[in-house]
């Protein structure tokens, strides 16, 4: 912890307030997106507003096809949008990604099958034209952080699903990103593995102090990890509610069984189902 | 252990076959001694040992140089086509024309217009270009879009995705392309030698020995040519085996392929016109730059003049139509049989790998055996009738289709196979639900690949054995120095291949679109 810059050690609320004033973090304003197929039009997003203050953890939750992944992909510049503005760390998505301010982990680990764990983690460095050899220590540190010591030179085909996903998490952190995008990173894992990964992710995120946007199906996961849960509805994709999560950090696994936790989760489920 | 046992089984099979062959040969049981005993062939090889080195050297250097040039051009072209899809559309006509060129029709033309080693190098290079180019495009196009997303999410552009994800991902496809291309190069070089009348080369040696009809020597030449082609295949098969294990993705990508970049109708029309015109421009340029007199080298207009305007045009048309009526039905039936056989065997091979190990050596042996060397032997065995044409056509279409299909099926990731297995599916159900649909794009690609080869097989058989159809017309025209007819047969056979190719392509496009699958270029 001693090596981390002091700003990471400030209380979260302070950081959030300061960042909000500067307008950093992630901000989507009035974003719309329509897919045009053969004779059909699907309005994926309509006037989407999403504000993630710097250093905050936001969970984006909603039914399948509500456009939550599309919002994330637009923020990364992987997809275009028809209207509105997108700012990531105060820059356009293309500028932010190109200057290495972002990190990303997708639902599928999407590891290159011919690269070892170490080389897969180094991939973003190569894309950003940085020298992977200068980051050997960070790579080793991240492998320890995600608990894959001894698997440095294993190929993805030799790892279990959970292990591959942890490689993807390590890869998303190798650039020491200011803004971290997580697209259902644990979607393919079982509940037990998922919970322990949630605890680990919180620990990792607290150490890095980055702004995080998590797209998820899981209410538990959203409540456990996030400062704020943003609920979306489909047809067209839009934000219907932003719900604050007041629990202290660091949160422990006990939280999963506390009545307050369940009250909040039930409330989110109601909003989600529109009852 | 199982692997060792099956290897022992394979060796046992080969020993049994050779022993049977020896007995049959010694007793002269087949076609009155047309199938000589292996010992006799080896003795003849030893007796001719002074002749072989220079013939082999000429063929190997010609095909090797052609293989190298053709593949370098092919891989670079594949890369450019994938990075700039408009160039693929523009050059589609040239690509398909090169692919559809029956080497046997082109060999006389190359020997008329080029000299020295150039015809055999050119024919070898033309033989490998399309296979390697399309394998490169397939490999580069069918990359894992999820890995591409990771690279793009860090601001990586098309080139970065190409460098980090697609190039390495394409390696198994390129290698399997090289594997098929290698025997093609040997066949191309031998065909050029065969029609060229040079002193050295196995093709020249074969031509010189045909008249004497000595089965021992013909088999000897055939075996040597087969060993050269087989070795070149084996080298890439071994490399590919080493590489494939680390390239297969662990999970199946379900992302729907992105639609092709939108192009204005005028742009599309311009590209289509360019694609149609470019092959003819290339033909024209080739004739002009080689500086061969008009009498011998015909331009596209020269062929139209010969076929529709000149004094002899009515006779020429009549001869051509009669030849086509003989060639086309055989080619069609042979192609269907070859494809069906390949599909059946690929399916069986997936269900029990022992089958693939038992069949592969035999398939390789007959397939790497260059057709020109194989045909005289088949004539010795089954005579000069319809059967020899069918055999050659089936065998020539079977091999590339089989390799492509086995590869398509073997690319299905493990986790996808595990799903039906988890529901207690039998090997057959698993095949039907997963492997066959996943291999469908490869089946179509194999069909397109097979069209010109079927035509080539029929024409070689007609030239060397049956004396009918297009192949015979080509051979006769060489004898009569009827240059107009040589160019006409060459261009008609290319146009026919292209036409059938497009027919298959249309069916493929409609089917795969309906299934939401990506086309294999």
From TrEMBL, chain A:
The keyword Transport applies. Keywords: ATP-binding, Nucleotide-binding, Transport. CDD domains: ABC_NrtD_SsuB_transporters. The keyword Nucleotide-binding applies. InterPro entries: AAA+_ATPase, ABC_transporter-like_ATP-bd, ABC_transporter-like_CS, ABC_transporter_ATP-bind, P-loop_NTPase. It comes from the Bacteria. Pfam families: ABC_tran (PF00005). Belongs to the ABC transporter superfamily. This is NitT/TauT family transport system ATP-binding protein. It comes from Amaricoccus macauensis.
UniProtKB/TrEMBL annotation, chain B:
Residues 56-240, 324-504 form the ABC transmembrane type-1 domain. The chain crosses the membrane at residues 12-35, 55-83, 90-110, 122-140, 216-239, 269-286, 328-349, 361-382, 388-406, 485-505. It is a multi-pass membrane protein. Keywords: Cell membrane, Membrane, Transmembrane, Transmembrane helix, Transport. Coiled coil: none annotated. Gene3D superfamilies: MetI-like (1.10.3720.10). One of its GO terms (cellular component) is plasma membrane. Pfam families: BPD_transp_1. The keyword Transmembrane helix applies. Its main location: membrane. SUPFAM superfamilies: MetI-like. The keyword Transport applies. It is found in: Cell membrane. PROSITE patterns: ABC_TM1. One of its GO terms (biological process) is transmembrane transport. InterPro entries: MetI-like, MetI-like_sf. Belongs to the binding-protein-dependent transport system permease family. PANTHER family: ABC TRANSPORTER PERMEASE PROTEIN HI_0355-RELATED, ALKANE SULFONATE ABC TRANSPORTER-RELATED, MEMBRANE SUBUNIT. This is ABC-type nitrate/sulfonate/bicarbonate transport system permease component. It comes from Amaricoccus macauensis. The lineage of its organism: Bacteria, Pseudomonadati, Pseudomonadota, Alphaproteobacteria, Rhodobacterales.
